[in-house]
Every structure is written in structure tokens, then in C-alpha cells.
Amino acid sequence: KSTKSHDPEGNIGCAHALYDFLAEAGNNELSVKEGETLTITNRSIGGGWIEAQNSRGDVGLVPEDYIECKPPLVALYWTGLPTLHLSSFFRSLTFPLSRLLQASNGNDPWSVWNSDPSGGSNNNWASNPEGTQTGSAASQGHPQAYQGPGADCDEWDDEWDDSTGGYPESESGEGGAMQRGGAHAPSMKISLNKFPGFSKPGPELYLLCKQPAKGKEKLTIYMGEVGPVWSYPETQLDCVVADPKKGSKLYGLKSYIEYQITPNTTNRPVNHRYKHFDWLYERLLDKFGSAIPIPSLPDKQVTGRFEEEFIKMRMERLQGWMTRMCRHPIVSCSDVFQIFLSYKDEKDWKTGKRKAEKDETVGVMIFTTIEPEAADLDPVEVEQKCEQFSRFTKAMDDGVKEILTVGNEHWKRCTGPLPKEYQRIGKAFQNLSSVFNSSGYQGESTLTDAMTAAGKTYEEIAQMVAEQPKKDLHFVMETNNEYKGLLGCFPDTIGVHKAAIEKVKEGDKLVAAGKISTHDKVTMAKRVSTMSYSLQAEMNHFHSNRIYDYNRVMQLYLEEQVKFYETIAAKLRQAHSQFTTM
Amino acid sequence: KSTKSHDPEGNIGCAHALYDFLAEAGNNELSVKEGETLTITNRSIGGGWIEAQNSRGDVGLVPEDYIECKPPLVALYWTGLPTLHLSSFFRSLTFPLSRLLQASNGNDPWSVWNSDPSGGSNNNWASNPEGTQTGSAASQGHPQAYQGPGADCDEWDDEWDDSTGGYPESESGEGGAMQRGGAHAPSMKISLNKFPGFSKPGPELYLLCKQPAKGKEKLTIYMGEVGPVWSYPETQLDCVVADPKKGSKLYGLKSYIEYQITPNTTNRPVNHRYKHFDWLYERLLDKFGSAIPIPSLPDKQVTGRFEEEFIKMRMERLQGWMTRMCRHPIVSCSDVFQIFLSYKDEKDWKTGKRKAEKDETVGVMIFTTIEPEAADLDPVEVEQKCEQFSRFTKAMDDGVKEILTVGNEHWKRCTGPLPKEYQRIGKAFQNLSSVFNSSGYQGESTLTDAMTAAGKTYEEIAQMVAEQPKKDLHFVMETNNEYKGLLGCFPDTIGVHKAAIEKVKEGDKLVAAGKISTHDKVTMAKRVSTMSYSLQAEMNHFHSNRIYDYNRVMQLYLEEQVKFYETIAAKLRQAHSQFTTM
Questions:
Q1: CB nearest A579 (choices: B429, B554, B575)
Q2: Could you please report the per-residue DSSP string of B250-301?
């Protein structure tokens, strides 16, 4: 197990891998998975390498560019830094912190801390895995813009949630994988798209494995009305994330938030900290990521300006994430998800955790557990389906980002210039009214009272306008943001399929070259068909959820919009009635 | 009478006076009134003087800076000039024209053509007589800003209305005062405020005149409930300005618009061109200006982008001006106003005109006809009243300008960025809906149809938002703009009173110096009391109209706003109903 280690020179410390790295055999290298927590054991190797130890105790060399180090302790106590353009305490604490570290440690290995692979740390809505700009540059620096994910600080969640003061913990016995500090989605993408050489194991592992592991796991795919579908449980799992409580340990040196999660199955609440969610996410991604898009946790989101608001927002998004996982027939039924939701006691939890971490049916090997109850597909059809889904998810990604962009602009207008304008209109009416009152002319109080009331009505409208986005646009934004995250996982999932298709296409060539047997070729075709069924089942699951979600959010939005405009009309009608008809 | 004269060297031509100029006796100078049309008879005098002839045939020297010359004929035919920022034909024709003349004739006397005394030819809402900035700088160049008076071209109205092609006319026998090309209000103010030396005759003329002219005119002031009031006619005069018709003369070389004015007294329409309104304005200003604020005609307003829109807008404003004049008990009963509204035939009209032009009860002498039916006021009370009105009109002027400023901003937002945003929201919903349609997943047409409908609804809302200001804000703007013009006349009217008060204060000194007799001093006090009654009657008239106008316009505005928001709510409710409740 990893040892807690920290020397005064900063030579040894905690770090995590930014990208996947595959060790070359015999070179004394250490394979690391992106996001994996490492303990740096020797920083003085030179030649761009450092020595690190993983949570299993293996020690080896890793390219230092692949490692992101935790900041030195002192920086966490630094407060009172100048805020750049964010007014809240939270942002002022974290944003300049990373900047400071960058600026003052030019040649220091710590300075990679803030290396944000998605570029532009201030880019709302731009934390999409492909690094695509979503037009949000226009929103930079606007304090009232909708606060999406990808806000200023990668390190925020980790530090704030788990230790508001203190060295990033590395508790032995709790599993080292919890220490990732970086962003999942962006760096994962980087690893797949920009550094294909250090990608996850390709589909060959599954396509060509001699005898698929025969575990007790069995994921059946049926033919439903809409085509291949997962096997859905009879009652849908659901849970409520609630009651965030601040806890502390080490005599108050470290504080954290614990959420209460109550599943509808046991109706018995369990407690989890953010880092437990993060652990769960890692396990699900490892296990199902090749077949099922596992959306990132709502991390790195600095939404609230106050602690309370921040916690509320995070809880809301954790709820959204958990609901989506509960709704997934494969995820929700998995052992790891079940143990997370309904462990009986600490021991039960620890056992479950250890078991989950040892699970070997991960990555592309998940396909070995999938059993479609239908005839094998032709490779041509497999490719067609794959292309279709690829096009659709790309198109929807664009559509969703467009909504986020216009929504963000609308949010800014509704909370910024528009209410200011209504307020000024209101003030102008009231000012003229008070001038009229000073006329010395008798009997105009009916007019001036009515004008004052009309002015006040416009001030009320100003306030309504400013508050409305929280009541309706917020949910449109949250839903689309969630979908953006989800859609950002599809290129990975689809990518595995595309790679498999390419492999199958090479079948004849590989046979001719004597690299695989004819039997292998047939097996590959059969297995890529299984993968296609899996993708289709997943797409059908996605579509049915999408229809439900958009139907719901559009209804809610329009309902609130109707109320909004009706209330304004009623207020104005009231104001109108105060004028006399001459 | 003036002779039509135009020599090829441009030596002789038409011009008009920019400011009042009082000739010094024995210096061969010619007194001119601001706005008066002159014929330049000799441009080669030198020393900053030119020789000019007025419409009565008097010839004399005038400072050349006081004269604005008409442009040479050729420029009027110049079309196809690059537009600067105004898209319409009208604006493109006129705005660059003046610029061109300025640029190409640097040292030419013609280059004074575009000298705009109010500064900033592009300054919406800034044609107020005091030249005060109303914050409209922000609206510069915005094509959709509310188009108030004082738009680009001083020369526009004159040229376009009276001669779309051809030399500015100087018809003999029609009265020379019609040829003014400049702006009344701004240049008048300049003359009074910036060049006090060339002001109108002061109140002394009235205060010290030996025996007030005993005409048949008699303007009685009664004590009403609210204080001194004018004598109101039993039925209020009213008229309808309608049916603008394009006429032409000189075989089509000159075209003009003729409006039909039908008073409620005779119910018989009379026709008038804009320049006849202008003549009427001049007469009313001459006759009543010292006692009654006569608002400027809606001249110099380039509001419509198309001929039709322009004519409609001008007609609307001429109607507003005529309605205000009709409502005034003194103005509406005057001979000159009556003949304008109800002349029987051309001969009747010409006779009436000639008579009006010969009227000598003008300027401060109007006070000789005023007869208050109440005890003389104490000079202290006179001064108090005067100060009170001065304060009120200034405060209201500020209030009105504030409304115009915020209204103009709101206009821009409602016709510019806001509908664009709603349109983009609508498009984003529709785009996502069409992506959904491409999913290949069955049975989602209810959702996509509903989403498309919702998107279209937001596009409809976009259009409603853009069109709404014309339905409600327009009238708020027009009313306040009218009041801005009216309030801009008060400093003049009040100024005459202040000057009179000062004169009375000097009474003892003047008696001591032997300049006036004790009897004169008593007379002055009595007459300043008459002036105060007149001001009070006028203020009470103003107040009662103000209450009526603002009550009406606020009601109209709120009524339309209620309709607007109710329609939006109804549209959204309809859109909402298309989603299925799951």
C-alpha cells in the first residue's frame, strides 16, 4: 500500500498521472493510468523522468510531463490574494492560487500544477472533452454569466472538499485511486486523441482473447420494439442525495462535506464524501467505459459564490449524476454501484471497495459478458450503425452546445443589462412623478400616485427578470450541460467500436500474414457483432432517456416562462388600473 | 419685394440669417431676424461683411458669419454618394451631401451650409434649445435607435419638402419669411443665450411704452380654482391633419407635399404645405412668444427610412403640433390661427397672410392686450412665482430627458439585440429538434414537433419584441419629445419675465438718475404684475395639459404592455400544451 510521505525539500510527494503511460518492458518503467494517484519517490532521476510508486506499491520511472504534482502545503493557507475578476471568496482563493504558483515557480516541477489541457481556465462550457470552443469566450469575466463546469480551478474540488487546510491526504488502506486531482474528461480525451500511442488497451484484447473469462456476470441484450435493448430491472433504482453535512477530522485540521444518499431499494441512507463518488466514477469508467458512456462527475465546478450555494449546486449535480447512473440498467445493477448505495457498515463498504478494485472484467473485456439474443450482424451493418451513431452524437453535441451558448448569453442579459434597464425605466417614471408633485398645481395626486406605482412596477419587473433564469433557464442549462458531458463520452465508446471494425477489416490480411488464424477471423466478426449490439442497446437507452429528459425540461421551462409573463402582465394591469380614464 | 436672383459666379444668391442682428444706426447696416430669408446682393464688401436685401426690399450690411448660404444647385442632383451609416435613400441623399459640400469647399462661403449650432449633427434627442447632451451619444450610428428630431440634416426639410430638385425658391408675393432653412429653436437659443447682445427687444419696450396700443384684441385672465387662468373658448378647437398628397409645379421640377387640415369648427378641409405651417409658426412665435411658449414645428426630422414613412411621421407630428395649438385658448382664437385653419379661398388666405405679417402687436407688446381681472401683484410675489416656474420647468425638462434617454436605450435593445437573442433561442430549439428527428429512433415525433413549435414560438416572440416599441414606447417618446420641445421654450418666456423683474428692481435707481418718472415706476410694477398673471395663466394651462397628456400616454403604454405580455404568455402556454405529460 502507498505510504504517506512528505519530505521538507519537496522531493517526495503526492502526484497524479495526467495521461496514460504504458511501460516498455525491461526499461524499469511504471505503467500509469490517467488520473491515477502516485507517490513520487525520487525526483532526481533526470532526463525527463521521475520515479514514482503506485497504490499497489509498484515503483518505476514515469515521464515527468505525465505527472501533475500536488501543491506545497503553504499555498493552501494563502488567502487575501487579489481577485482577478471573480468576486467570491471561493474563486478568489483558488484562481489566483494557481496563477501564483505558475508565476513564482517557473522552472519548478510544481509549476505543472495548473497545466490545463483544455486551455483557457476561464472558459465556461468549454470543458468538453474535444476541447471545442463553444463561443463562451464572450462570457469571460462576466460575473453573472451562467456558471457551467470547467471554471477556474482544477484543484478546487479536491482541496476544498477533502482538506480545506492540510496536505493532500494519502490515507493508507482507503485505496490510492482517490487522490486524482485532475480533470477526467479533458485529460482522458487528450490521451485518446492527441496521444494515441498511450491509449487504453485496444479492442484486440477482446477480439482476439483466447477464451473469454467466464464470470458469473452476464449482460443480456434483447430485441425490443426499437431494436437491441439492455435487460432492464423490474423496478427502476432511484436515490436521493441530500443533507450535506460538514465533517472534520484530525482535530479540525481537515474538513469535508458528507452527503446522505438514500436508495429506493433499502430506503436506508448511506453517507459518502465527494471523493467516494469520485472513486465510484473511476470504477464505473474502468469497468463499463468501453461499452457505456460514463459521464464525468460534476467536479471542477465553482458555481456558488458562497459556500452554501456551492454545496447546494454540487449536491444538485451529484443528484443528477446519481439519477442517471441509477437509471442505467447495467450500471445500476453492477456490484460496485450496489455496494456504494447500500453497504451495511464500514466493514461491508471496505470489503466491497477492495473487491471492486480487484475486478478484472474492465476495459474492453466487458464485452465478454455481453450476450446478445439475436443473430450475428454483418460487418457492413456494424459499420453503418457505428457511423450513424457517430453522426448523431456529433450533431446532438453541436445542438446542445448551441443551446448552452445562447442560453449563457440570455442568462447574462437577463441578470445584467435587462433588469438594469427596467430599473432605469422605473426610476425615470418615478422621478418625473416626483417632479410633477412639486408643481404646486392642485389635484394631480391621482396621476403622480399612478405614475409612481407604474415606476415601482417596472422596478419589480426588473427584479423578476433578474431572478427568472434561476427558475427556468437554469434547468435547461443543467440538462444540456449534463448531455454535453454525456455526449463527450461517446467518441470514446464509439472509438472502441471503430477500432474493432478496422481490426475486422484487416482480418484477411492478418490471416495471410499468418498473424491470426481463420478461426480467429470468424471469432473477431462474431465479437464485433456483439459490440455493435451493445452500442445499439446503449444508443436506444440514450434515446429513450433523452426523449424523457428533454420533454421534461422543455415543459418545465415553458411552464415557468408562462408564469413569468403572466405575472408581469398582471402587475402591469394593476399599475394601469390606477390611472383615471378621462 | 425680393427678387429672384442667381448669377453664375455664385456672387448673388439666397441665404438666411443664423442669428438676430441689430443694425447700428448710421452704419449702413441691416437688422435681420434669425431665420429670415435674405438675398445676397454683394459678396465682395470685405472685412467680414456682406450686403444683403431682406424681403421688404431693404438693403444693408450684415456680418457674414451671421448668414447661412443656400447650396449651389448642382449638389441637389448628386446621388449615389456613399452612405456613412444610414441605410435609407433619404439619409444617404442628404447626409453625405452636406459633408461633401463642407469637404470640397473649404474656403468657400457655401461651406457654412452645414454649420450646425447645436453641435453633432448625428445627435438624436439633442436638438433641445439649450444644446444639453441627453446621453444620446451612445446611440450614435445605431440604425434602429428611436429617431428623434435633430437628425442629420438641417437642410433636409426645406429642400425635400419644397423642392426635390431645383433652386431654393423665392417666390415673390408669397412672403419672404418662408425661406428660412435653419433650425428655429437651436439658433434662437444661441441668439438669446450665447449672443445676448443680439437678443429680442427686452421687456422695457412694454414696461415703459407711453400708451399701450388699444387694439380690439383683449386677452382676459380670470381667477380660477387653480389660480389665474386664460379665458377658454366654450368649445375647444380641434383639427385633423390628414391625406398628404404630393403636388408639383414648374412642370414637375419641384414637388412638395400638401396636407389636408380639417377644423372641427367649419368641418371644411384646407390644404397647406409644410412651409405654410412654418409661416404660421413664425407668426405665432413673433406674436405670442414672449407670453406663451410656442413649440417648434417638427422640422429637421429624418425619421422614416422611406418617403412614405417620413411623410407619415411628419404628418403625425404636425398633427401633434396643431392639436397643441388648437388646445391653447389664446393661440387658437387668434386671427392668424383662424385664417390658417379656415380660409375660404386663395384670396382670403393671401389677405389674411398679409394682414398677419403686418400685425404690430408682437413680441413683448402682446402684454398690452392682457387684462388680468385681479389685483396687482407685489413684485416679491411676482419674483417668487417666476422662480417657482423656472425651477419646475427645469426639473421637468431633466425628467423628460431622462425618460427619452432610457426610452431610447430600451428602444434600441428591443429592436436590436433582444429579438436577435429570442430568435437564436428559437433556432437553437428547432435545430436540436431536427437533430432529434435524425436519430432513427422511433416514436419521438411528439417531442420533436413540440420542440419545433416551441422554437417557432420564440421566433414569434422575437418579432413581437421588435415590433412592440412602435406600439407603445413610440407614444411615450413622442409625448416626451413634444414636452421637451415645449419646455425648451420656457427659458425664453421666463427670461422675458426675469428681465422685467430686474427692470422693476432698478426702478428707484432709474428714477434717481432721472431716466424714468415716478409714474413710470408705478406703471412698470403694474405691468410686471400683468406679465406675472400671464405667466401663471400659461403655467396653469401647461399643468392641466400635462396632466391630461401624461395620464393618457401612460395609460396607453401600460395597456399595450399588458397586451404584449399577455400575448407572449398565451403563445407560450400553447407551446407548452404540445408536450406530453409523462
A1: B554
A2: TTTTEEEEEEEEEETTT---EEEEHHHHHHHHHHHHHHHTTTS--PPPS-S-
